[in-house]
Structures are given as C-alpha cells and as structure tokens.
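Field notebook, page 94. I keep forgetting to write these up properly, so this time I am using the form the group agreed on. The chain and the ligand, zinc ion, are recorded exactly as supplied. Prediction of the bound pose follows.
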Amino acid sequence: MPTYSYRCPVCGPFDLVRRMAEVAGAADCPDCGRAGPRVWGAPALRGLDDRLRRALDAGERSADRPDVVGAVPGRSRKATPVTRDPRHAKLPRP
Ligand SMILES: [Zn+2]
C-alpha cells in the first residue's frame, strides 16, 4: 500500500499507509486527532535502485529522441568460431 502525507495544523506533517480507495482529502492526526489536509510532494524516487533509475531515465530520453546505433546492442561483431575438429562434421546439421 502507498504512503500518503498529511499535515496536522498543530503537530505538523505525518504519513499514513492507506489503500488507494481509502485516500481522502484529509486524515485525522495520529497524535491529537485533528483533521489534517493531504500534502502533495515529489515521488519517492530515491528508493529506486541506481541501475533501474538510469534505465528509466534512458527510456524517458529515448521516447522522443531515440539513440542512433550501428549494430544490434548486446551482440559483438565477432564471427562464430569455426571448429577444425573432424568429429564435428559428423554432427547433425540444423
Ligand atoms: Zn496533530
């Protein structure tokens, strides 16, 4: 379940973990019980793995300006090694 932030007029900010269906514009403060309005903040991106964040950034950048590549990424240009073993000639071919 996601965490939502609220601000009590007396105690200050507090977070509540709620189901999305239960989210309201205000919530009762866990300390004093007064209703506090919901506060909107930046998404919690710092919890993401560094590799995942880089991949998301690259995906976002390439959405309107894709990278130009000269070869299929992840494949080397090396030819498949040819074997000289005579037993390999007897193997079934695809
Ligand atoms: Zn309070």
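OBSERVATIONS:
- Residues 8, 10-11, 29, 31-32, 34 surround zinc ion (CB under 6 Å).
- Strands lie at 3-8, 12-17, 26-28, 35-39.
FOLLOW-UP: compare against the apo run.
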